[in-house]
What we know:
Elements: H1 2-5, H2 26-37, H3 42-45, H4 53-66, H5 97-136, H6 143-163, E1 166-171, E2 182-185, H7 192-197, E3 203-207, H8 211-223, E4 227-229, H9 237-249, E5 256-258, E6 269-270, E7 284-291, H10 307-315, E8 320-326, H11 338-353, E9 356-357, H12 371-394
Parallel strand pairs: 1-8, 2-5, 2-7, 3-4, 3-5, 6-9
Antiparallel strand pairs: 7-8
Amino acid sequence: VGAKEKNHLIYKPYSNGIIAKEPMSLEEEIKEIRRSGSSRDLGAASQEFEMSDIFYFCRRGVESIMDDEVTKRFSAEELESWNLLTRSNYNFQHISLRLTVLWGLGVLVRYGFLLPLRVTLAFTGVGLLVVLTSIVGLLPSGRTKNFLSEKVHLMCYRICVRALTAIITYHNSENKPKNGGICVANHTSPIDVIILASDGCYAMVGQIHGGLMGVIQRAMVKACPHIWFERSEVKDRHLVAKRLSDHVEDKTKLPILIFPEGTCINNTSVMMFKKGSFEIGTTVYPVAIKYDPRFAEAFWNSSKYGMVNYLLRMMSSWAVVCSVWYLPPMRREEGEDAVQFANRVKAAIARQGGLVDLLWDGGLKRAKVKDTFKEEQQKLYSKMLVGAQEDRSRS
């Protein structure tokens, strides 16, 4: 409702129109199946297993396969029409000679003029970031070093944003994250970092990498206290929480930027937030990011494209158009656990960005569904049967 009032585009969970039904509980649906297939008294029938109950689980299984609301979040967002880019869900379509010529000219402009210019800007921004942060890192800690570090980071990130021809609209800047807090945002792409960092400085959190990324990380940490973890340290939740807590307790340090989903989602929904960053007793600054898929597909499908290939695809698009909303700061309420707090923040981000709020873990992108989810359905069904029998024995 909030998204409709703000005229935001709402992603339709059942956009293909195959399945349309009213939400019903397991017990109600099974009773409906039994009512349509049996003339016996429903009160007596619900007290024991019926062979027709199998059809409920078969139907739910087929529905899940036909319209899976989870796995389709890991592929490019479906567009209503072709957007003059051959990599949208609608590939090149010959509609008219005029449109074909226009598309051909667009290819020449994007690959012949925009791409070389953007690649040059990207190398310039990254090169300046490495060199200037290394120089600033030689200065003694103090106000001057912090000032220069902030200016260097903003300048280099803004050059990198121009390398993508990013057109960004920032809303409610009075809610921008402040020192000693944690900024959490929905995650669509690696460029989320520079989209946010071009409007304000953040302390990054991540795993230490090798190669070019490792060079950039080592240079950045010299000028600003970012939080990098070794591969073996990432799985140690207590160590991660301790490092984050120590950082936010120092009010002179920049706010931490975290993407609690842990993986990229296709900007149609927000999936489960990991509770780790919400266990720390500090102020959380939610941020909602929404990309316009008509000009570029910002979603990074890491199982299909490598980082370099993805960045080249982005640089050969028309532009990166997105909106960023800074939401009012939120704190954990009394009696609220970390999971409830994470869900409350996630719901606020989804509502503001016009995204679907899902409870599923983004880790399903690479892992199978846990057995506990299957057992939940079994428990609900057995509880229905056992509960009916207990009511019968009491009567």
